[in-house]
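Tutorial handout. Part one gives the primary structure; part two gives the three-dimensional structure as tokens.
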Amino acid sequence: VTEVEEDNEPPQIVRVKKYVLRPMTPEDAALEMDALGHDFYMFLNSETHLVSVIYLRQDGHYGVLEPAK
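Part two.
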């Protein structure tokens, strides 16, 4: 019988990744995200000049998160 220890600590941030945001369209960001094999990608939207996140939805389409103005 193996004893399992319970870990009651909350999740911790264990990595911070920094990179330069490149201006691009949401369509280009989707291509970049797919090429990297990620399910989200942060970019500088060249159409709105806002930092945005594109993500793959469960229905297979894409969504974009942008800050409220």
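Part three, for discussion. The chain is about 15% helix and 25% strand. The chain has a mean pLDDT of 92.
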